[in-house]
Amino acid sequence: MPIYAIGNKIPSISRDAFIAPTATIVGDVRVEAGASVWYNATVRGDTSYAVIRAGANVQDGAAIHGRAGLPALIGEQASLAHNCVVHGATIGEQALIANGALVLDGAIIGARCLIAAGAIVLPETKIPEGMLAVGAPAVVKRSIIGSASEEWVTGNPGRYKQMAHDHMVGLREITREEAATGHP
Fold first, then answer.
1. pLDDT at 86 exceeding the cut of 90
2. N or C of the chain: less Cβ packing under 10 Å?
3. Cα dist from 67 to 13, 53, 72, 88, 157, whole Å
4. What is residue 178's predicted lDDT score, i.e. its pLDDT?
5. In the chain, which ranges are E strands?
6. φ, ψ (nearest 5 deg) of residue 90
7. How many CB atoms lie within 10 A of CB 176?
8. Could you tell me the pLDDT band of residue 87, with boundaries at 50, 70 and 90?
9. CATH number at residue 167
10. 79 forms bridges with which residues in the sheet?
């Protein structure tokens, strides 16, 4: 897994965090206990810092970056789904940023929110706790409390914790021959 310092900015990664072999971590980045950064995700702390709190998951292809004065802060047990972007924004505890969504500079996403797939949260937008936001630009539609969306938001961290464990103990590179035959 590519992990880089840039100048005196050095990543700090908990020993029990899962970092996929193709994820890239650069600069002033902190990844806390039980967090996971998946395949082809990038977390860059060069112009500002980034923090991925305990139990959060940053899924395949996601990009996290700050800008001067605006760090990227990912809350405990938050989920950043495939190919989403968080740029200089704050994501609340157990919030879920769905596939392909963008959360831009200075935005604040409340705890246990769901930002729908493909949504664009404009700079400085604040999404209150427990809400579903959809569209481009993203607008609050309704509360997720008591809906099927609530289980998706609150259950996702546990599912990713288990998958991270499975990858930490069972991931191994195989040869082309093994892949061709389907046998080790």
1. yes
2. C
3. 21, 19, 8, 6, 27
4. 87
5. 3-4, 12-13, 18-19, 24-31, 36-37, 42-52, 57-58, 63-65, 72-74, 79-80, 85-87, 90-91, 96-97, 102-103, 108-109, 114-115, 120-121, 126-127, 131-134, 139-143
6. -115, 125
7. 7
8. very high
9. 2.160.10.10
10. 57, 96
Q: Which tokens belong to 96?
A: 């879920």
Residues in the chain: 184
pTM comes to 0.94
For residue range 133-159, list pLDDT tens digits in order: 999 999 999 999 999 899 889 998 999
Distance set, CA 27 to CA 5, 38, 114 (Å): 5, 18, 29
Amino acid residing at 23: A
Q: Which burial class, exposed, middle or buried, applies to 54 when counting CB atoms under 10 A from its CB (0-12, 13-18, 19+)?
A: middle
Q: Where are the alpha helices (DSSP H) in the chain?
A: 148-170, 176-181
> 30: which strand partners?
12, 51
Biggest CA–CA distance in the chain, Å, is: 53
State yes or no: pLDDT of 14 exceeds 90.
Answer: yes
Q: Which domain holds residue 112?
A: 3-181
